[in-house]
């Protein structure tokens, strides 16, 4: 019974998106005005589709997409290395936790837009400031989830490995990191989403090319369907990036299958 329902799931997911688009189209065509949302002011999906076709034919589309993808994966890549390293160090050492974690917890609530003026002052180029904003956004979810994964590890596994003669680095490589890997992958997925969010914010203010810059420029020029096109591109690229991280996690953890309730 369960196996028979698996092919139906993609159909249900695609169908739900199509239904949402259809409702949006009907609400825009009939200029539905509720106490919460005025659909008469929103561009219809047909207008967005025409704007998307025009954007894809533009010679600037390659520059926008290439710059955004490069910035996201560069900032995210550096954040991955730094975040996992800090998370492991803090999770394994109370002394390092006391020294570093208070600063991380103080900086973590600061929104990306608040970093932009300082980033512009700290870095000699606009590109460097945008990469920093992307890095800082992805860093904190990775650090905290790595710490959580290590602290949640059963201490008996570490004691058992040491009793069998495993040395410090062997314990870290063969017990601690594999045990914390599910939480680390979750942090990577959250960090990728935060990287896209912070990138768009930085590009809107300090960029010359990129999906965020294109979206903000469309607003300034009152090309409202193009705003939605930029939002759709951000959503699609964010979804694909998260799926890539999820696939990487499945490859790294063939033994791990999260429990899901069957309904």
UniProtKB/TrEMBL annotation:
<feature type="transmembrane region" description="Helical">
    <location>
        <begin position="129"/>
        <end position="150"/>
    </location>
</feature>
<protein>
    <submittedName>
        <fullName>ABC transporter permease</fullName>
    </submittedName>
</protein>
<dbReference type="InterPro" id="IPR035906">
    <property type="entry name" value="MetI-like_sf"/>
</dbReference>
<feature type="transmembrane region" description="Helical">
    <location>
        <begin position="194"/>
        <end position="215"/>
    </location>
</feature>
<keyword id="KW-0812">Transmembrane</keyword>
<keyword id="KW-0813">Transport</keyword>
<keyword id="KW-1133">Transmembrane helix</keyword>
<keyword id="KW-0472">Membrane</keyword>
<dbReference type="Pfam" id="PF00528">
    <property type="entry name" value="BPD_transp_1"/>
</dbReference>
<dbReference type="InterPro" id="IPR000515">
    <property type="entry name" value="MetI-like"/>
</dbReference>
<feature type="transmembrane region" description="Helical">
    <location>
        <begin position="227"/>
        <end position="245"/>
    </location>
</feature>
<feature type="transmembrane region" description="Helical">
    <location>
        <begin position="69"/>
        <end position="91"/>
    </location>
</feature>
<feature type="domain" description="ABC transmembrane type-1">
    <location>
        <begin position="65"/>
        <end position="245"/>
    </location>
</feature>
<comment type="similarity">
    <text>Belongs to the binding-protein-dependent transport system permease family.</text>
</comment>
<keyword id="KW-1003">Cell membrane</keyword>
